[in-house]
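Posted in: Protein Modeling Q&A

I'm a second-year student putting together a small comparison for a lab meeting, and my supervisor asked me to include a predicted structure for CsbD family protein. I've never done this before, so apologies if this is the wrong subforum. The sequence is pasted below exactly as I got it from our records. If anyone can share the structure token output, I'd also love a short note on what stands out.
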Amino acid sequence: MGSISDKVSGAANQAAGNVKQAVGKMTDNDRLQAEGKAQEVKGEVQQASGKAKDTVKGAVDRL
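Accepted answer (user: helix_wrangler)
Welcome! Here is the predicted structure, written out as tokens:
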């Protein structure tokens, strides 16, 4: 994946994870809350990966 697609996928996963967590809290569904948290963390990792790719690309371009 490219850095932009990582960032977009990451943002989407974070948003979906937050929604799942909120619905899980409202319905007192611990499993859904846990799935939401896991999806949110996955999104954070994807976004960090995209940012890291941008950093590496920038460093390589400066060589």
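A couple of things worth pointing out for your meeting: The mean pLDDT is 95. The two ends are 23 Å apart (CA to CA).
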